Amino acid sequence: MAHSNTILSQVLQLIPRHQFQTCVDRHKGDHRIRKLTCWGQFIALLSGQLARRDSLRDLIETLSSNQTALYHAGFKAVKRSTLADANANRSHEIYRDLFYKLSAKIQNAAPKYKLKLSRKLYALDSTFIELCLSVFPWAQFRQKKGAIKLHVLLDLDGLLPAFLNITDGKTHDVTAAKKMKLPKGSMVACDRAYVDYKWLYTLQIKGIRFVTRMKSNAQYRVVKSRKVDKSTGLRCDQTIRLTGVQTKKKYPGELRRISYRDPETGKRLVFLTNDFALDAKTVAAIYKARWEIELFFKTIKQNLKIKTFLGTSPNAVLTQVWIAMIAYRLLAWMKFMSKTGMSVQQIKRLIEMNLFQRRDLRDLIQRKWLKPPKPTVSPQLNLAF
């Protein structure tokens, strides 16, 4: 049998060490550090994500019991207090920068989204991560609730987060969206929470197309109506101008209003877009593609440790979230490269059960272990008459 490193060691090889060290040096992460380097902290927290460890004590005991498997990866056993101090004090921006450095290489391997468009398609949304206010008093959201908020711009090619912003629970979606650098010439699908006409007009000026839901209280006048095939669920396709006292100042241009009735649920949806070239059915399909970001949130919450935390300080929480997102990128990369059709969740489960085993990572993901070895017949069993 060919020699193989541990699964964890092979996963770590996907991260260029020179890029990691660049992030560390930029934020002086290893300045005057004697015991636990940033690389060791990263190995520990990434192991906690992939092995699904529930607490800091649980994680340290797991790492200590597998010390021989971790030695060649560059990790030595540390005390729980040492790792806790690192999580509280080492800048989370180290892992934020690493997250973005991995983006381009992994995105190049991502498959194209099933909806064929001339523009790059993104989905924009946010999700809450609830926190206990008595344990995380800095994360106050409501009077008796704590939370942080993940604002995500999801590239639908490969379903990978292109931009991620972590804020307190009170930050409005549009406020976070204004800080995102949407690529020029792209298309973004978002829900009604992002209907800020001034921001939407900014996208129009930058050459960015959007598809969103129209607010029920919007005031407008119809400039032009186009014929639609009502057998497809479409009800109307109109060119409109906003007539509200403030809205017409915030968005002085024309918009396209499309009414659609979902044949499956019977629900009527009214879309708003600044794209006049696409057919109305495609616009409805673009908004439907926005559901992919809801599935992304479901995947990370079910498979990564972002609902319970190993530390209580803001830096410890942000560090854990960024490393969780790095873990998701690595799992997605394995999915793209294996070309087996397995989901991120299935790959995560395989790695979770074999993280410290010495076997080939590619063979594990491609499930070559399911094929039994060919039986060999010993010559001693051959009977000659």
Task: Please provide a written account of the structure.
The structure is a single chain. With 385 residues, the protein is α+β, with helices and mostly antiparallel strands. Among the domains are: 7-103 and 314-369, no CATH class; 192-286, no CATH class. It contains 16 helices and 10 strands. Strands 1, 2, 3, 4, 5, 6, 7, 8, 9 and 10 form a 10-stranded mixed beta sheet that branches. Strand 7 and strand 8 (234-242) form a beta hairpin. The longest helix has 25 residues, at 314-338. It is elongated and about 70 Å long. The mean pLDDT is 90.
SSE map:
Layout: H1 7-12, H2 17-26, H3 38-51, H4 56-65, H5 67-70, H6 80-89, H7 93-101, H8 103-108, E1 121-131, E2 140-142, E3 145-155, E4 160-168, H9 173-177, E5 187-190, H10 197-205, E6 209-213, E7 220-226, E8 234-242, H11 247-250, E9 255-261, E10 268-273, H12 280-289, H13 291-303, H14 314-338, H15 344-354, H16 361-365
Parallel strand pairs: 1-5, 5-6
Antiparallel strand pairs: 1-3, 2-3, 3-4, 6-10, 7-8, 8-9, 9-10
Keywords, please?
385 residues; alpha+beta; 10-stranded mixed sheet; 19% strand; elongated
- β-strand amount: 15-25%
The level of helicity is: 25-40%
Helix/strand class: alpha+beta
Total of DSSP H or I helical runs spanning 4+ residues:
16
| Net shape | elongated
The overall pLDDT, averaged over residues, is 90
Radius of gyration, CA atoms, in whole angstroms: 25 Å
Characterize the quaternary organization of these chains: single chain
Main sheet overview = 10 strands, mixed
From the N-terminal CA to the C-terminal CA, the straight-line distance is 37 Å
Detail the poorly predicted runs: none
What's the total count of β strands? Answer: 10
**Order of SSEs, N→C?**
HHHHHHHHEEEEHEHEEEHEEHHHHH
